[in-house]
């Protein structure tokens, strides 16, 4: 039996790649897309997207009323993605969410909703397996190195900073790192922001440049040595295997999980 999928954000950098992934996976069927600029049209009407008759809706409620689906993939922006994810679960459709920038409170709320509805939901700030390994290796290393700076680098069209991956990395590191405030106790910033964002005394630096895709280095230091753990996504195909796996896994789940590492 095919897994029926609705996808939001089909014209986006990630969404367009995901449309192709879904169309090319024999067990998946793309049954609708959510796109605020092409209400009532078909996928084939959008320039640059595959020549397929897949209906497009602007409003997610209308889409869920008219189209039966098993899984909903969101690759949009944080505010919209949160609303879409909530609405999908309310309609007993399992979300697979790549959109980053949700607040901690929003993730808790969505988790509670998944519990109430007994609906699977996967929110993963990074679907690239290499990035998940980079995060897990960093979690391991932080047990031995409590001084760490996370440097994430992305294309300059990215809306959220720090990246979802950097936040998730810091959360995993927090599991093993001895809490401490890093740097000199008397350090000052002569230009605001020079030391980056702070989370539990750790530092996160966000670089935005045209030409970049998605890159992160986790840099540890202790006396006489440094350790660098680095991952680069060179294109958006790197995220597709993770989304594909999540679609299969979410079909077997009845709660929310945050992070691809939980299902690998
Ligand atoms: N988890 C992961 O592995 C990855 C996650 N991401 C995340 O995925 C998300 C999308 O990234 P990316 O594809 O690069 O972004 P894009 O800007 O390329 O795409 C975003 C899409 O969302 C649509 N959109 C924007 N605002 C609205 C709205 N109000 N209502 C409906 N649709 C809207 C845009 O359409 P429009 O033209 O109408 O604005 C566009 O199609 C981001 O949050 C990013 O951080 C990215 C890469 C990997
Ligand atoms: O916006 C992006 O491009 C990416 N966003 C995700 C994030 O915020 O971590 C994942 C990846 O880094 C690409």
From TrEMBL:
Protein's pathway: Amino-acid biosynthesis; L-lysine biosynthesis via DAP pathway; (S)-tetrahydrodipicolinate from L-aspartate: step 4/4
Tagged with keyword Coiled coil: no
EC number from the UniProt entry: 1.17.1.8
Binding site for (S)-2,3,4,5-tetrahydrodipicolinate: 155, 164-165
Coiled-coil parts of chain: none
Residues given in the record as NADP(+) binding sites: 37
Residue intervals of the Dihydrodipicolinate reductase N-terminal domain: 3-127
Binding site for NAD(+): 9-14, 98-100, 124-127
Pfam families tied to this protein: DapB_C, DapB_N
Highest taxon in the source lineage: Bacteria
Reactions accelerated catalytically: (S)-2,3,4,5-tetrahydrodipicolinate + NADP(+) + H2O = (2S,4S)-4-hydroxy-2,3,4,5-tetrahydrodipicolinate + NADPH + H(+); (S)-2,3,4,5-tetrahydrodipicolinate + NAD(+) + H2O = (2S,4S)-4-hydroxy-2,3,4,5-tetrahydrodipicolinate + NADH + H(+)
Primary site of residence: cytoplasm
Recorded family membership: Belongs to the DapB family.
Quaternary assembly: Homotetramer.
Protein function: Catalyzes the conversion of 4-hydroxy-tetrahydrodipicolinate (HTPA) to tetrahydrodipicolinate.
Protein name, as recorded: 4-hydroxy-tetrahydrodipicolinate reductase
Organism: Oceanobacillus longus
Upper classification of the organism: Bacteria, Bacillati, Bacillota, Bacilli, Bacillales
Protein's gene: dapB
């Amino acid at each position: 039996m095919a897994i029926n999928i609705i996808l939001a954000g089909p014209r986006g950098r990630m969404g367009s790649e995901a449309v192709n992934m879904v169309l090319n996976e024999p067990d998946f069927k793309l049954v609708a897309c959510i796109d605020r600029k092409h209400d009532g049209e078909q996928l084939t009407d959008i320039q640059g997207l595959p020549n397929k008759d897949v209906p497009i809706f602007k409003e997610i409620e209308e889409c869920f009323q008219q189209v039966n689906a098993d899984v909903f993939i969101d690759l949009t922006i944080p505010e919209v993605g949160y609303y879409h994810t909530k609405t999908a679960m309310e309609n007993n459709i399992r979300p697979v969410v790549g959109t980053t920038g949700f607040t901690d409170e929003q993730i808790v709320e969505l988790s509670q909703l998944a519990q109430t509805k007994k609906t699977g939901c996967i929110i993963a700030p990074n679907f690239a397996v290499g990035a998940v390994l980079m995060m897990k290796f960093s979690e391991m290393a932080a047990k031995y190195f409590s001084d760490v700076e996370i440097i994430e680098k992305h294309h300059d069209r990215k809306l959220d900073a720090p990246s979802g991956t950097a936040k998730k990395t810091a959360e995993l590191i927090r599991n093993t790192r001895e809490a401490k405030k890093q740097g000199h106790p008397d350090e000052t910033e002569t230009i605001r922001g020079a030391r980056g964002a702070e989370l539990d005394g750790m530092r996160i630096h966000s670089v935005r440049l045209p030409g970049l895709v998605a890159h992160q280095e986790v840099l540890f230091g202790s006396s006489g040595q440094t350790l660098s753990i680095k991952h680069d996504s060179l294109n958006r195909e790197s995220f597709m295997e993770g989304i594909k796996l999540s679609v299969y896994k979410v079909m077997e789940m009845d709660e929310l999980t945050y992070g691809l590492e939980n299902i690998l």
